[in-house]
Design a protein that fits this description.
Length: about 280
């Protein structure tokens, strides 16, 4: 565990990663190569039904400055420049997309032993301002996440979160959608040796009075192979197996079954990530 409470996006992250990360029903291929000068080039392809999407990302690191340039099949270019530790605990991120001239955004993150702050500002005439802040320690933290649209003069996002972290347990509570949705999550490490963990998330919508419950687990069969499974109260069951056949190169097979409509065919996803 780190010394400080982290950023607002860290609240409930361990539970979300266990329940949702790496699950997919598409086919994805990623390969990363490095030039002699240290430039990392990552090419990705994603097949969604009959649709094929691809992009190429070039990453260059120079001391504490990282520049990422991504080009996709629609000729969109996304550039991100990250300056890390310009001052102790400070990170600055500048991003923009071409040809979308209104997409330019500047974000500043600051991490302290008892606080984590992230502020972003759209570089336009009437920008959207985002602010999130967390106060507390690595054991107990309280935070908020706000967005203000200066064009209409209204708050467009207002969330709040609470997190409690113990040696092998993380619990969080989030109030989202301007108070309309209440979400509680739980992450518990059962066995550190095999990275066996269980997680659950319960979300209640006040306007529809509906609950969504998702539970999941993960387990390491060996140091290179991990299995995960999850199920929700809507009857969707998912499982995956991920194998690291060489350092940082992952092969993942995942599947989804609708237990309330077993006559429908199951969905399968495949992901292959190659790194030298």
């Amino acid at each position: 565990m780190g010394k400080g409470p982290g950023l607002y996006s860290d609240i409930g992250k361990r539970a979300r990663d266990l329940l949702y990360r790496d699950y997919q029903t598409d086919h994805k291929f990623t390969i990363t190569t490095y030039s002699p000068t240290g430039v990392a080039i990552t090419s990705s392809g994603l097949k969604k039904g009959d649709l094929f999407l691809a992009d190429v990302n070039t990453q260059l690191k120079n001391k504490n400055v990282t520049t990422d340039i991504k080009v996709d099949t629609n000729s969109n270019l996304l550039a991100t420049v990250t300056v890390d530790e310009a001052a102790p605990g400070l990170k600055t991120i500048l991003s923009f997309r071409i040809p979308d001239q209104s997409s330019a955004k500047l974000e500043v993150q600051y991490l302290h032993d008892y606080a984590g702050i992230s502020t972003s500002l759209g570089l336009t005439a009437n920008p959207i301002v985002n602010f999130s802040g967390v106060v507390g320690t690595n054991l107990l933290s309280l935070g908020t996440d706000l967005s203000f649209d200066t064009k209409v003069g209204a708050i467009t996002k207002c969330n709040a979160g609470l997190s409690f972290t113990n040696t092998d347990l993380i619990a969080s509570l989030n109030l989202n959608d301007k108070g309309d949705a209440l979400s509680a999550s739980y992450y518990h490490i059962v066995s550190p040796l095999t990275m066996t963990a269980v997680s659950a998330e319960v979300t209640h919508s006040f306007c529809t009075n509906e609950n969504t419950i998702t539970v999941g687990t993960q387990h390491q069969l060996d140091p290179l192979t991990t299995v995960k499974a999850r199920v929700n109260n809507l009857g969707k069951a998912n499982a995956l197996i991920q194998h690291e056949w060489r350092p940082k190169s992952l092969f993942t097979i995942s599947g989804e079954v609708d237990t309330k409509a077993v006559d429908k065919s199951a969905k399968f996803g495949l992901a292959l990530a190659l790194k030298p």
